[in-house]
């Protein structure tokens, strides 16, 4: 994880670096730091533990730093405590070389031992310090070479010794005005800034560049970039000059505001109707009186769909939960065998059989486990579809096909609108596969697509009714544990509900397929233990009632989130969902559970947008 940024240009670097870091803070907020280089080459480093605001205070938002060239870092701790000592930038003695790093250097222990044996003294517990001390040594050995060639060669030599993933930006004290960068695995995008900021900026993602640069070059694996005020030069892993055309970037990206809401999470919950509408709109067409879906723009034309014999859905966290729901939708509608597996577990599974379409689901498109699964599947010759929200992400660039969710930038760490968009896109994929396989009777495709297109309005109504969940959130605020149960597709919805509650409120929450309660978990139910039951499928209503009764008779306080026709004879508190096609109802069920998590988090005084220990984009395995 972590976010890194670099700038070389005409303007003072401090404020630009601070602004860039603010836009990257979603990648980690354990500590932050900057290194700014003055005209004579001297490198000044300021680091602070905790949120970026601490660094902003210390540097008066960057104004106290003097120099037009610099690098910055916002940290999600992997090696070493989240304190000032371990904060980046890290530097070699006398600040000869300073670097910021995103990723993990897997062989840092061996490198540290080797460098210590050579007399190097480490000041932090980070893996990054091994990289900077190694770079310093490589650079020193190349003294006498022309400056740029020397630094490029030193970076190549350092990169050849590093194992793991990294995006690194570096400053050399004897090369004022130049920022160097190298990457493997972790992303980096660089763009030309104009006007008062004339120069070049580089960052872990384009959000930091938006508004400064109109286009960005995405560095390839192994590539080295050299940025000065006047030029961006690229070199391939062998040190040969490389070229790559810049891609346009959205000027508004990265400028997200809360728009009157107390938190980004609340705002993004309310953006779900738009996220779902924008995701579906490009793919649903009118043919006379009937609607039909066309996914050819995502590389899934009739022939491609007909050749799909099996679907594998993978992702992490909420994206995996969307995959579990997608499995149910695809199996039920298209009758195609379907498997959902956590991306982090994929390396220990057998390669999928021929005819498999692997769908890798990710909001960021950068999650390391999901990216690794995508790469492994591609290496195994499996056709891949990236279902991603970030069009410039590594997954969007590397997958065979891309189906974009159009939720817009998500800032709150807990996903809401991107999850809703994923659920809608998977519903669309299920309908399209079913139509291609001839599984839908006349008019059924139209009815299903109509139901998908009606979801935004239904979501809007539901979002206006948060009062019961606010009250329930207050009532369960002291619970030791909350259990979420559901059957079939609702078990996936329950898992998402439990994840939301634990990450935002820090209340322990666990989800189970309802039938499993009696096989062990019932022993945890005490008087007053909250049990949230999700039931959106009529055919499951009776069995869900039985599961709730088992829990209630042991003293549980049961709350039922019920789809149309699923709450008859239900006892206890019921949250009723508006009517929709039952297979799409779990998307609606997510809303009251998001509200529960949000209000419980607020009631406990948590930073709901940035829960402790987490980061938005998990770029380490
Ligand atoms: C939970 C949440 C995470 C992400 C997971 C995958 O609210 O947001 O569980 O879903 O880290 O992230 P992406 O979708 O970016 O791959």
Quick recap:
By secondary structure, the chain is of the alpha/beta class. The chain is built from 17 helices and 27 strands.
CATH superfamily of the largest domain: Aminohydrolase, N-terminal nucleophile (Ntn) domain
Do you know the CATH architecture of the largest domain?
A: 4-Layer Sandwich
Question: How many domains?
Answer: 3
CATH topology of the largest domain: Glutamine Phosphoribosylpyrophosphate, subunit 1, domain 1
List low-confidence stretches.
none
Mean pLDDT: 95
Present the secondary structure layout.
Elements: E1 3-9, H1 13-24, E2 31-37, E3 43-49, H2 52-58, E4 69-75, E5 90-91, E6 97-105, H3 108-117, H4 128-141, H5 147-161, E7 164-172, E8 179-184, E9 189-193, E10 199-203, E11 215-218, E12 224-227, E13 232-235, E14 241-242, E15 247-248, H6 264-270, H7 272-280, E16 284-287, E17 290-293, H8 302-306, E18 310-315, H9 317-334, E19 338-342, E20 356-362, H10 368-379, E21 383-388, H11 394-398, E22 401-404, H12 417-436, H13 444-463, H14 467-475, E23 481-486, H15 489-505, E24 508-513, E25 530-535, H16 541-552, E26 557-562, E27 573-576, H17 585-603
Parallel strand pairs: 18-19, 18-20, 20-21, 21-22, 23-24, 23-25, 25-26, 26-27
Antiparallel strand pairs: 1-4, 1-10, 2-3, 2-4, 5-6, 6-7, 7-8, 8-12, 9-10, 9-11, 11-15, 12-13, 13-14, 16-17
Helix pairs in contact: 3-4, 4-5, 7-12, 7-13, 9-12, 9-15, 12-13, 14-17, 15-17
